[in-house]
Design goal:
The chain is of the alpha+beta class. Helix content is about 25%, strand content about 45%. The chain is built from two helices and eleven strands; from the N terminus they run H-E-E-E-E-E-E-H-E-E-E-E-E. Strands 6-5-4-3-2-1-11-10-9-8-7 form an eleven-stranded antiparallel beta sheet, covered by helices on one side. It is globular and about 50 Å long. About 5% of the residues have low confidence.
């Protein structure tokens, strides 16, 4: 009987320990979701450098944000510019003198726009914590294709550091650095007017 009681106590303690750890993990997840939301919504404008890696091909460039518009400039040799707003984006290839417009809902530009402008973007994302970094992971369907998105943040202070987009064909990683929250933009910098 003593052995039985001891076993029951051990099981009971294990259940309590498991429950407390689960509650603590949920609290931690909620804490970081709130902090991340506050961080992202506080960014009215910024500029940063990025390194993009896709199938061992490396490209560099700059991200820019002001209010509800984004701009992505790829450095040489690509020399491509994207200007993005909620439902429309412009592609401008400077080398070829080519301009195209497209709907953001049908490609990965939607991910970048929603990250900074959709308050519900991280609501159903899974949360992971490792060392001094944490990240959110979620699946998004774009043009009938499933994409696994991972968004990595430095913990203290909270800073966006990396975005991964994985679909069945390719994985693309953006490393973000040198963020400046006080940029000086010209009035037409985020214009969707044909630059040619």
């Amino acid at each position: 009987k003593k052995m039985f009681n001891k076993t029951i106590k051990i099981i009971f303690l294990f259940i309590i320990f498991f429950f407390l750890n689960t509650v603590e993990a949920k609290d931690k997840e909620q804490f970081y979701k709130i902090k991340t939301f506050e961080y992202l919504t506080s960014i009215v404008e910024f500029e940063s450098k990025f390194i993009q890696i896709q199938e061992n091909e490396i490209q560099t460039g700059h991200f820019f944000k002001k209010n509800n518009r984004l701009r992505v400039n790829y450095d040489e040799p690509s020399n491509i510019v994207f200007v993005i707003k909620q439902n429309k984006a412009m592609y401008f290839n400077k080398n070829l003198g080519e301009v195209q417009y497209f709907n953001t809902k049908k490609n990965s530009t939607k991910i970048f726009f929603d990250l900074f402008n959709d308050i519900n973007f991280l609501n159903n994302a899974k949360f992971f914590f490792k060392d001094s970094m944490f990240y959110f992971s979620k699946n998004i369907e774009i043009a009938n294709e499933s994409n696994l998105i991972k968004i990595f943040f430095e913990e203290s202070p909270i800073r966006l550091r990396k975005i991964e987009i994985q679909n069945k064909e390719v994985k693309t990683t953006f490393y973000i650095n040198n963020m400046n929250f006080n940029p000086d933009f010209e009035d037409n910098f985020f214009s969707l007017v044909n630059p040619l």
